[in-house]
Structure formats: C-alpha cells, structure tokens
Amino acid sequence: MKDTLPMDEKYKVHMSKYFEEYERSLKDVNGFWNENGRIIDWFKPFDKVLDDSKKPFYRWFINGKTNLSYNCLDRHIQNEKRNKVAFIWVPEKGEEKVVTYFGLYRRVNAFARGLLNLGVKKGDKITIYMPMILEAPIAMLACARIGAVFNVVFSGFGEQALAERINNSNSKTIITADGGYRKGNIIQLKNIVDKAIDLSNGVDNVIVVKNTHTEIDMEPDRDYYYDDIIEDGYVEPEQMDSNDPLFILYTSGTTGKPKGILHANGGYPVWIANTLKWAFNPKDEDRWWCAADIGWITGHSYIVFAPLLLGLTSVMYEGAIDYPKPDRMWEIIERYGVNLLYTSPTAIRLLMKYGEKYPLSHDLSSLKTLGTVGEPINPAAWHWYYEVIGKSRCPIIDTYWQTETGGFTISPSARLGLPDLKPGSATFPMPGIDAEILDENGKNVKPGEKGYIVIKKPWPGLMLTVNNDDKRYIDTYFSKFKGKYFMGDYAIQDDDGYYWLLGRSDEVLKVSGHRIGTIEVEDGLVSMKEIAEAAVFGKPDTVKGDTIVAFATLKDGYEKSPELIENIKKRIRNNLGPIMVPEEIHIVSTVPKTRSGKIMRRVIKAVYLDQLPGDISTLENEASVEEIKRAVDIIK
Ligand code: ATP
Ligand code: MG
To answer: Best mutation site among 255, 401, 594 for ligand 1, i.e. most ligand atoms within 8 A of its Cβ?
Structure first.
C-alpha cells in the first residue's frame, strides 16, 4: 500500500472538529445549511433548506433571494474591505495591475450599466470568450449583477467549438477582446468570434475589450467597444431566486462530448465559499493564487467567485506558467508573496520535468499551503510538490471535484482538522458529501476494494441540470445507480477511510480478471526517475481481457532506447507486480491532453486501435495525436 507521511506538528490539528461537522452535515441537513447557508447575504431569507420533491432535480434554499455580484462586492465595500486589494493581475509581460474591492465594484457597475443599455435583460444568455484579463471577471460579475446567464468559453477554443457553445447556450450577446497573449503570440480572438458567428444561429451584440490593440473588423450595429459602452454609476443588483440559473459551463470533454452544466444563484455560491474556507482555511491577510484559467470550473469557483465571496486578495495571472522561462510560476510566488497556491498535477509534472534548479533559484518561503486539482496527483509529483516547493512544511490539499459538483467534494480540510496526508489520496469528503464506493451491482465494496464512487445525497453545489437536456442529466448521473450521483470515477477507500481516485471508470483496465485503475499503472511509471508523464489504456485481448499499453514522455536529460523500456518494465514488475506491467511502452514527446490539461486516454486508445476518436474539439495539441499515429504505424 502507499506510504503515509505524518505532517508537521504545526498542522496536526485534531480531526475531531472535522468528524463532528461532517456527521452533523449529514444528520442535520436543515440545521447545518441554515447556518452555513448564511455565508452569503440574502435579500430575502430562504424559507426551506432543501426541496427534494422532484428528485434528482434538487433545489436548495427555497424562495431565498440573493445576488452573487452583491455578495462578492457590495457587502465588502460597506466595511473595512472597501480598499483591500481584490486582484493583483499579472500579465505575461509588463507591469501588474491592482484593483481594490471598491475599484472592482465600480467597474462591474459600469459594465452592468453598459449591458443594460444594450438591451440585455435578466435571463438572457451571454457567451464570454476572453483572455485572462481583469475584464473577464468583471464581465462575469456584471452578468451576475443583472441576472444574465453567462457561458464562459475557454479562449483556447477555435471557431467550431465556440459556435457550438454559442448555439447550445442560445447566447445573443458575446463579450470578447480583440486579442489575447499566449506565450509571446497574439491570439486573434475577435477574428475567431466573427467566424464562429458565421457558423452560429446569429447574435445581436458583440462587445470587444481593447487588449492587444490589433486590427479587427467591427460590424456596425452589432459590435461595440467595451470602452464605448461602459457608464459609471450604480446598478441595483437583481434579486435572483436561489434556483434561477447563474451560468452554463461546458465540462472538459475528457471522456466524451462536453456537457453544458447549469449552476444556480443560491446553492453554488454557498458551496464554493464554504468549501474554500474548509479546505484551505485562508486568512484575511493571505494572498491566494489559483493558477487555472477562468474558462474552466476551477477558474469560475476559485479564481473569481469564492475568493471574492470571502474577501481575499488573489493573484490572477494572464499567461502560461512556463513562459517566458520555466521559473515563471516561482518568480510570481516570490514577487507577490503568494501564501496559498492552487494548481494542477499536469502543471506540477511539467515544472518537475524542467528540474529543481528553477524553484531552487527563488525564495518560496511565503507559501503556507499548496493545492491541486484536475486529475489524481501521482505520488511522485506529490512528493516533489511537497518537498521541493513546500519545503516539507506546507500541506497538500488535493481537491477532488468536477464541473458538475460546483466545488470541492473530497479534500483535506485545513480548517476543520487536517488529516495526516497520504501522497495521492484526496483524503476525506467535505461536510455535506455522503460518498460511498459501489461495485457493478450497486453493493458497497469493502475497504481496500475498488469500485465506482457515488454521492448518496444532494449538496448545495450540485448542478441544476444539463442545459436544455434534463434527460442527459438523469441518464449520465442518476441512472447507473438509481438515485445516487454517479461521478464516473473509479476509487478505493482504504482501511483508514481515505479516498484514492484511480481514474475514469470507463477507462478501467481489466487484466486477467483484475480491475486496475489507469492511474495505478501511471503512478508506477511516473515514479521512475526517467518518466515525466504517462498515459495507459487497455488493448482488447482475447485471453487476458485487456493488455496494458502505455505512452510516456521522458524528463529532460533522458533518451529513449529499447534497454530503457525493458528496464522500466522490469522495475514495474518488481515494484507493482507482473499484472501491472505494460505489454508495450511507447516513448513520445507529448501525450494528448484536453485544453484544461487532462490526459485524453480515449483519444490515444482510439488512434491506436484505428477507431474514430469521438469529440476532439477539446484536444489541445493535434501534433500529439499525429505522433501517436506515427508510433502506431511503426509497430504495425
Ligand atoms: P468530461 O466530463 O467532459 O469528460 P472532465 O470530467 O475532465 O470532462 P471536469 O469537470 O473538468 O471535466 O473534470 C472533473 C474530473 O476530473 C473528475 O471527474 C475526475 O476524473 C478528475 N479530477 C479532478 N480533480 C481530481 C483529483 N483531485 N483527483 C482525481 N481526479 C480528479
Ligand atoms: Mg466529467
């Protein structure tokens, strides 16, 4: 079994508070959420915590009226947070910009007024396709203020994916920028928007922020510059019903066609504010940096809304974490004195691949807590993050959750009681999350046995539905195990009650009657000093069921050779046993990933088996697929 790492005494808070709160959250749903539901202000208090009369369409904080922009801004400017810094915005190149809570409040109001002047109304859908500039959170907050439902589309997507999302969300207004910077290049966002509109059902308004000052076409009576429509003043925040839709966001598309997830005005903010507080225990004076993109749920919940709800100061970074140099992330931490860092395993593996010299050349002593999200973190990456970055004094908060869940579902809780951490385990459920692991027949598995992770009861962050597709909501999430929320991941709970996520349940390997999570083999590969990243899948085999095939990348300084591959197989056999040894290991320069940085095993498998790869609109790097094709051609 995996190793346990006792934490520094300083962090060894007693777990009793956690267990107490956790039990209460499940036993006394009303009492618990009556109290914790007040982490946001309500114009009109809710008169019931949960309505579960139309299962699985759960509704929270019934008849409560609130507004997310009010909760992120107005209530802070009435107290000592008024002049506190909300965001330190760090560009890829050049000087940072700082905006205070009052400044952000003013700017959100001015843009909200601009939207109203264009005729945008409560309930209208708006697509936001923007780079990581301050106007992006301003746009999201302005939409929330007037009750427009926003749909942020990651700015790395091309026109086809953008057009699909404009149509599916039924947006008639688009907010964009002339261009965005990415690794020294300019991405012509407005041009992409123009092409997407041609492919779409048509839109009424396009609002353009001048960012890169590149030449663009402006269509009269449709396209407006942001600077021309904003108008200073106060816009009364709409009184939104707790269960009015707040935003639509498409999932990453790792396993299939992205789903348009719809979140609500009441339950969602309550969930993300509480979970950020429980998991990371941020202090008022802390500087928080969530190094994600606002185009993903992580950016929505933990760059924009939860930190503002809690009145924190955040770093918001425009560019790539290894540009212009591999030490960019460490430089930002040092320069801005970041205390809490939240990033992904894919980022850690990338920075690890460059070697220790980059982090070691910076003073990272401001760091107190380190977080991760997006995929299971390989123990090797965990140790590097913990030892090299955190100098063995910062707990690793491994947060397991999904677009659909709104916020963290399984994560260590630094506030309620931090458990001894085990590298690679997301530890325990957040309060309100009644998780369990089931076998194919819906029976509870024993501790140490693998199965499907489900959540038995609703919690406030659960999506309202899949946009325009209630059937898909029921079929995808509530059908495999009737009435239970199916997360689609494979997991194990060990004898101490810790949860370990083992990869996607539809990617599980079935080798000679044994079920093996993809991550179990990948962890073994990534723990080799030569390997930076690994992706495995099962190749159908008439005798064994599946044989394991791996694609891997090497760390800087290693060369591929047949001896290396044999040697790696030998070590896997010794460390993990014969059943875990990949029959084939192919060394490539990159593995296919989603634009949010997740390994796309289904694409590798399809290419390998010469099948259609399904929806690849979220694929980040087409060259990686070509490379796999070439590798496969050589074998065949
Ligand atoms: P799609 O649903 O379209 O296939 P996706 O599942 O990648 O895309 P997201 O909602 O961005 O879309 O990602 C959620 C998934 O990411 C989880 O279901 C899980 O597989 C994985 N994940 C996220 N965080 C963790 C974590 N800390 N440990 C393990 N897995 C994680
Ligand atoms: Mg998913």
So the answer is: 401
**Nearest protein CA to atom 23 of ligand 1, as residue:** 374
Reference 290, options 87, 436, 443; nearest CA is 87
Enumerate residues with CB within 5 Å of ligand 2 (an ion).
Answer: 251
pLDDT in tens, 304-321: 999 999 999 999 999 999
The answer for residues whose C-beta is within 8 angstroms of residue 577's C-beta and 6 or more apart is none
Angle at CA of residue 422, ends 416 and 423, nearest 5°: 120
Ligand 2 geometric centre to CA of 101 (Å): 34
Listed in sequence order, the residues at least 6 apart from 533 whose beta carbon sits closer than 8 Å to its beta carbon are 346, 349, 353, 526, 552, 553, 591, 599
Q: What is the pLDDT of residue 5?
A: 47
Residue from 125, 428, 373 nearest 252 by CA:
373
**Which two three-digit tokens encode residue 405?**
């869940």
* Spatial separation of the C-alpha atoms in residues 244 and 147, rounded to whole Å: 9
CA of 598, nearest ligand number: 1
The angle formed by the CA atoms of residues 475, 481 and 482, to the nearest 5 degrees, is 75
The per-residue pLDDT for range 437-481, each reduced to its tens digit, is: 999 999 999 999 999 999 999 999 999 999 999 999 999 999 999
Q: How is residue 156 annotated by DSSP? A: T
Q: Could you tell me if the CB of 258 is within 6 A of ligand 1?
A: yes
Closest residue CA from atom 5 of ligand 1: 252
pLDDT over 80 at 635, yes or no: no
